[in-house]
Amino acid sequence: MLEVVEVVVVEVVVVVVVIVVVVVVVVVVVVVVVVVVVVVVVVVVVEVVVVVAVVVVAAVVEVVVEVVVEVVVVVVVVVVVVVVVVVVVVVVVVVVPVVVVVVVVVVPVVVVVVVVEVVVLVVVVVVVVVVVVVAAAVVVEVVVVVVVVVVVVVVVVVVVVVVVVVVVVEVLVVVVLEVVLVLVVVEVVVVVVVVVVVVVVVVVVVVVVVVVVVVEVVVVVVVVVVVVVVVVVVVVVVVVVVGVVEVVVVVVVVVVVVVVVEVVVEVVEVVVVVEVVVVLVVVVIVVVVVEAVVTVVIEVVVVTEAVVVAVKVVVVILFLASIVLEVAVVVLLIAVLGGEVLEVIALVLQELVVIL
């Protein structure tokens, strides 16, 4: 009986454990499914929001870029026209007189200065060439003297060696045969005489060569000094003449520049009026473009009534700011131009009528 009860208890425990495990597995599966569904829903919502935002932003950016490009093109065209007009006026009023003065006065002076400098340069080159040639000749002579001295020394050494060999041989012979002693003495005397003669000749040659080299160096130094003095005198004279000519040219150029500056002042007054007109036109164009951009933004981002109201408030503020800017520009024109303000306003109104 006890064994049967134990078996039944074990089976009941096993069944309970299996049921608990199954329940836990089912709960885990349900939780995983719920989490997956929530994640999928969140991802879908985020993708939809991102797509809507990208579409709206792309539309706004496209419209704003088109409007900005058109405004930039208009401003660039106006600026280019003004710059071309100013450049043409400056070229006609300033560059042409300056070119005429340069061609008539400066070019001949420059030609004379260049010719004088070329002549001086040629003289200097000739002097340098002469000095180089003389120096090369001196170097060659020194090399020749050195070679002669070396040859003479080699000959003397050879003669001395030969004499020593002969003396040694003869001494050996004398040791064997004392009869030839007299001959050896005679030969030694002859050798000594020959050596003395050779030494004297070498000394004379060296002295002569040294004297010749010294004389040539003195001549070269004298020639170089004379040439340098002549060149310095010529250069000083040329520099003085060129300085006087340059002073005259500077005076003429200063006079011409003063006259040209007076003419340019008149031209600058006209250019200032044109630039003021261009600034007014650009300000009006910018105001119109800002209003157009705001209108396009209103049409694109009409999502809720609150956004519409906010955009309308921004439009009203921009409109008031544009009115204040236009009034400030008019006041600035009145303050800057004074008596000419009516003419400037008339020109601006004509430009606005043409643009509209």
UniProtKB/TrEMBL annotation:
The chain crosses the membrane at residues 12-41, 48-65, 71-104, 111-138, 144-173, 180-213, 219-242, 247-265, 271-293, 300-321, 327-349. GO terms for molecular function: transmembrane transporter activity. Signal peptide: none annotated. It is a multi-pass membrane protein. InterPro entries: MetI-like, Na/solute_symporter. GO terms for cellular component: membrane. Keywords: Membrane, Transmembrane, Transmembrane helix. Residues 33-212 form the ABC transmembrane type-1 domain. The keyword 4Fe-4S does not apply. It is found in: Membrane. It comes from the Eukaryota. This is ABC transmembrane type-1 domain-containing protein. It comes from Dreissena polymorpha (Zebra mussel). The lineage of its organism: Eukaryota, Metazoa, Spiralia, Lophotrochozoa, Mollusca.
